[in-house]
Design goal:
The complex is a heterodimer of chains A (379) and B (344). Chain A has 379 residues and is mainly beta. Helix content of chain A is 3%, strand content 43%. With 344 residues, chain B is mainly alpha-helical. In chain B, strands 1-2 form a two-stranded antiparallel ribbon. In chain B, α1 (18-48) packs across α5 (122-143), α2 runs parallel beside α10 and α3 (69-95) runs antiparallel to α4. In chain B, a hairpin with a 2-residue loop joins β1 and β2 (176-177). Classes of the chains: A mainly beta (379), B mainly alpha (344). The interface between A and B is large, with 65 and 57 residues.
């Protein structure tokens, strides 16, 4: 009887692993960046990869972002560190910038790196030694030689993009998962404390703040003097970029994760319930019946020509005609393959970075593969 | 020229094996009926309990254990009945040591006479187990340790506005970060200690050296195992275990007392104090209204004739003394020879 209890208890503890979902280990969902003919992306193995977009997706170089355990001699108990890359690389003046997410024993930390675009050599890293308390999920933004990046410990950093020296920092008091956005001399950053901040991009001084209904995960979309922003808590806002006043608000059954896209007078808003809502950018009125795609959307869509391409989490790729708002599925990835990172387009090519297994696709607007998919998993 | 979208076509994908599909479906069904309700209730509770997820875990544990009290009580009573029957079972094992068939039939007869089912405690435990699993999985999912967990959490949430306003949950509780293991080892010790106390209270007297060994293994191995596991799991889960064990100890005490815990030498005097008895009180002198010696003796003689025969215990107690009538008052004073001669 007692042995039976022991068996049942052990099965209790092992059962969560049998339900098919892997939880609690950060793995990353880095997107793809294009600079000329070169693609850059972060992998689930903590590497940044440069790929030739014109030569059958051939790898140019790979650099591993090693976790810095802080040195020190003598006997020490080291906890295995997991390194994940959630941010999408950013290219600026012959350098590619990326941030890392380190996890060890339940504690997280991170770093900011600048690599040479041609060789992959790390030119500087911030901090120089050790790591920050901030683990990074959002991508770095670079404007006017200033790099902006927000971390999970609640600090927004502004660094000199040439040498990595810190210019200023702004503490928001809650986690930062979103990538910043900029318009003119104003920097916008959303936080897990339900607040959208507008800061002076040069000095970090606060201009205004806007209280939303929930955590902000995605990058704000700045278009025509308006900021479009979705929250995890079912609300989507249009805010005046100059004053911080709400213009309109839209409420959905579930929250928002991916960034919206504007095409003409329409704004296409992907929702976690698997719908794309089509609203008028000025009034927030629904322009069309919501487009149902069947599974939740965490990947930011991309506009190529007059089509909007969007991937659902379970690997189905749709094209939406922005003139008629008609949608059609153009490609389905392999079973269990998921897409969390945003799509990116260049010319008539759409790049998709999928996970489980980690693969890079290059397809045309009809869904046909331009190059053979590139596997990014080491064997 | 209007854009014509191509006909639907599918990219390469591997067909799922039937076994994979059915297992995933079972996981989805389990999530739908068990895990998601508990998750959403936990989040709502934290909204009403000062935005504290720690309090929400404790509160829900109390609610669930309270709802399962009838089953738990049945299980504990069944265990207690098994304990009480141990001497008889041991006697049977001695008597029929060489005849296993006879032993089995006599044991079953004993169970029948006592109205017991030897596996009766298994039913309640089997029913409680899915609830424990659901609560365990809910806590893990809601804590959303990795960013992927927080993303996937959205698929388990109901469309109640109060839920979304709570997320992400405040993972701080006392000194703890509920999403990571306790760094100062307090929770692992508490988990092991409460589990040990609970085990000690329910442990049955062993009828054989083998059973004694098994009992000792359960008494020490399970608490140690769970204590070690607590080092790896989020503190929120450890909090649930401590709350659940504490409630289990209270239930156990209500149903069957301290059990094996009272046998510990340093605790027995605290948990089972001796009652004061009449043997220890000081005998009092007779009051003026009480009968005199002679009268009392006559009455005693009458009582002896009419009163029912005393048991050995009563005789012994009367020899030791009646606190109402001291011994010296009942005895006739001895007369000396001179007193006897003078009378004559």
């Amino acid at each position: 009887m007692l042995l039976l209890m022991l068996v049942l208890l052990v099965s209790t503890l092992s059962l969560p692993g049998c339900t098919g979902s892997s939880r609690s280990l950060p793995q990353g969902w880095s997107g793809v960046t294009i600079d000329g003919d070169t693609l850059f992306l972060g992998t689930r193995e903590g590497q940044i990869v440069a790929i030739d977009a014109t030569d059958n997706l051939k790898e140019l170089w790979t650099t591993a972002l090693e976790p810095d355990l802080g040195g020190g001699g003598g006997c020490s108990f080291t906890v295995p560190t997991t390194i994940a890359i959630y941010s999408t690389p950013t290219v600026w003046k012959e350098k590619v910038y990326i941030t890392s997410y380190l996890s060890a024993g339940g504690k997280t930390s991170g770093k900011i790196y600048a690599l040479n675009v041609n060789t992959g050599t790390i030119e500087w890293e911030y901090p120089g030694e050790g790591t920050l308390e901030d683990a990074f999920i959002g991508s770095p933004l670079i404007v006017n030689d200033i790099l902006y990046a927000g971390g999970k410990a609640g600090t927004l950093y502004a660094l000199d993009a040439t040498d990595g020296s810190k210019l200023w920092q702004f503490d928001v008091g809650s986690q930062i998962w979103a990538t910043p956005a900029i318009s003119g001399d104003t920097l916008f950053i959303g936080t897990f404390g339900d607040v959208l901040y507008a800061l002076d991009a040069a000095t970090g001084l606060e201009k205004w703040q806007f209280q939303t209904g929930g955590a902000i995960v995605s990058q704000p979309l700045v278009s025509n003097g308006m900021i479009y922003l979705g929250c995890y808590s079912q609300q989507f806002y249009a805010i005046d970029a100059a004053s911080g006043e709400k213009v309109w608000e839209f409420v959905a059954p579930k929250g928002f994760w991916a960034e919206a896209q504007v095409a003409g007078d329409n704004i296409y808003i992907p929702c976690l319930n698997g719908n794309i809502y089509v609203l008028d950018t000025a009034t927030g009125n629904e322009k069309a019946t919501e487009i149902k795609l069947g599974s939740f959307i965490s990947s930011t869509p991309v506009v190529v020509g007059n089509e909007l391409f969007v991937a659902t989490n379970e690997g189905r790729i749709f094209a939406i005609d922005t003139t008629t708002n008609q949608a059609g599925e153009i490609k389905k990835l392999r079973s269990k393959e998921i897409v969390n990172s945003g799509l990116i387009g260049s010319g008539d090519t759409i790049y998709i970075h999928s996970h489980s297994p980690e693969t890079l696709y290059a397809i045309d607007p009809s869904g046909a593969e331009i190059w053979r998919p590139l596997s990014l998993q080491s064997e | 020229m209007p854009l014509t979208l191509p006909e639907l076509k599918f990219g390469d994908h591997y067909p799922c094996r039937a076994s994979e599909v059915s297992f995933l479906d079972i996981g989805e069904i389990w999530s739908l009926i068990a895990v998601r309700p508990v998750m959403n209730i936990l989040i709502v509770l934290s909204h009403y309990l000062f935005s504290s997820f720690g309090l929400a875990i404790i509160a829900l544990t109390i609610v669930i254990r309270g709802a399962m009290y009838p089953l738990s009580a049945r299980q504990l009573k069944s265990t207690k009945a098994m304990n009480d029957m141990q001497p008889k079972l041991m006697a049977l094992q001695k008597k029929y040591a060489n005849d296993r068939q006879k032993l089995a039939s006599e044991q079953m007869r004993l169970y029948r006479e006592a109205g017991m089912n030897p596996v009766g405690c298994l039913g309640p435990m089997v029913i409680q187990l899915p609830i424990w699993i659901a609560l365990y999985q809910s806590i893990i999912r809601v804590l959303a340790v990795a960013p992927e967990d927080f993303l996937n959490l959205s698929q388990d949430l109901y469309s109640w506005a109060v839920i979304y306003t709570r997320l992400p949950l405040n993972k701080s509780f006392l000194w703890l970060n509920l999403a990571i293991p306790d760094s100062i080892m307090v929770l692992p010790i508490l988990v092991a200690a409460t589990m040990w106390v609970q085990q000690k209270m329910i442990i049955t007297p062993a009828s054989s050296p083998q059973q004694r060994q098994q009992s000792q293994i359960m008494l020490w191995m399970m608490p140690l195992m769970f204590g070690m596991l607590t080092l790896q799991f989020p503190s929120g889960l450890a909090l649930y275990w401590i709350a659940s064990n504490t409630i289990g100890i209270i239930m156990q005490y209500i149903i069957s007392g301290w059990g094996g815990l009272a046998e510990l030498p340093y605790l027995s005097s605290i948990l089972s104090p001796k009652k004061p008895g009449k043997y220890t009180s000081t005998p009092s002198l007779p009051s003026p209204d009480e009968p005199t010696l002679d009268e009392g003796n006559e009455e005693v003689a009458k009582d002896k004739k009419t009163a029912p025969a005393k048991s050995a215990k009563q005789k012994q107690s009367s020899k030791k003394g009646n606190p109402r009538r001291p011994q010296s008052a009942r005895r006739k004073p001895r007369r000396t020879k001179n007193q006897n001669v003078e009378k004559n």
